[in-house]
Amino acid sequence: MKKVFFVLLVLSVLSFSVFATTNIVIVGSTTVLPIAQQWAQAYMKLNPNVNISVVGNGSGNGIKALLDGVADIADSSRWMSDSEIKYAISKGFFPFPVVVSYDAIAPVVNANNPVRNLSLDQLKQIYEGKITNWSQVGGPDMSIVVVTRDNSSGTFEVWAEKVMRGGLVKPGALTVASNAEVVRAIAGNKKAIGYVGLGYLESSPNISEVAISGMKADIKAARSGSYPLARALFMITRGIPSGEVAQFVNFGLSPVGQKIVSEVGFVPIYEVK
User: Fold this and answer.
1) 6 with 68, same domain?
2) Percent over 70 (pLDDT), the chain
3) Do 89 and 166 share a structural domain?
4) CA–CA gap between residue 190 and residue 145 (Å, rounded)
5) Residue 238, SS3?
6) What span, in angstroms and rounded, lies between the C-alpha atoms of 213 and 121?
7) pLDDT one-digit tens code per residue, 174-196
8) Alpha-carbon distance 95 to 62, whole Å?
9) 268 lies in some domain
10) Over the stretch 9-63, which tens digit does the pLDDT of each residue have?
11) Each residue of 103-122: b (16+ CB within 10 Å) or e?
12) The predicted structure's pLDDT at residue 67
């Protein structure tokens, strides 16, 4: 009887190890969010024993969650800061960033606003509050409502670096927490201007892209870096990824994963059919 019990116990342990669920937590950028969500859904369909949760709350929050051990992967639409890297090292690991896609930040206005081209300097002056009426940049005589992102946003940090260039966003600007909220704000206000990642340009018929000095955000310009607000999108792990996390990242970098990147409106890291 003891031998039979032992065999059954071993079989039950083996069965548990084979069918145990692996959990992966992904936190961070709302720009990377559509990519992460679609990768997660496709990966879980192929691997029923894996559960992946995805939260979009800003690049800074995602990196903090990774550094504090709350997340397995941080989505980020910006490079890590020196202080974040030093903090990671103090916690005993070196962060490992993986480029999962390329992107371009596009200025957007309400579809009823005829302005379709602005220079970087005009964008800077609008966001600083030095240009306050659309008539000053060839548009109708109406005040400008500035929509921006919060400080935890990687998109905001890229905008601050490449557009504001040391200038400060005007007091009273409408600050929102995600790309989707920017789209809703612009779509609902004909006076508004904002900025979103490439994957959000087609999310509403009530917004229109504004070219930067005649150049629009597109796949070729984003991948080559010739577009003024081109950038890479990252998934960051605690050291070189291993186990199921590595398998998930590799899936995302595969032709199947990069096709998903294209399908959600972003730029694959290499050409896919």
Assistant:
1) yes
2) 93
3) no
4) 9
5) strand
6) 10
7) 999 999 999 999 999 999 999 99
8) 13
9) no
10) 333 444 444 557 899 999 999 999 999 999 999 999 999 999 999 999 999 999 9
11) bbbbbbbbeebebeebebeb
12) 95
**251 in a domain, yes or no?**
yes
4 has pLDDT over 90: no
pLDDT of residue 96: 96
DSSP letter, residue 212:
E
Q: In terms of domains, do 183 and 242 share one?
A: no
Give residue-wise pLDDT tens across range 72-103. Answer: 999 999 999 999 999 999 999 999 999 999 99
Same domain for 127 and 212 = yes
**Nearest alpha-carbon partner for 28 in 233, 175, 222:** 233
Answer yes or no: is 187 within a domain. Answer: yes
Contacts of 227 (CB under 8 A, 6+ apart): 104, 212, 215, 217, 218, 221
CA gap 129, 158 in Å, rounded: 19
Residue 252 is assigned to a structural domain of this protein: yes
- Domain tally for the chain? 2
What is the residue range of 188's domain? Answer: 103-224
State residue 19's pLDDT score: 56
- For residues 118 and 206, state if they share a domain: yes
Q: Does 118 lie in the same domain as 164? A: yes
The pair of structure tokens assigned to 224 is 């080559």
- What is the C-alpha to C-alpha distance for residues 58 and 33, in angstroms, rounded to an integer? 9
Torsion of CA 21, 259, 149, 147, to 10 degrees: -140
Residues in contact with 271: Cβ distance below 8 Å, sequence separation at least 6, in sequence order:
none
CATH of the domain at 157: 3.40.190.10
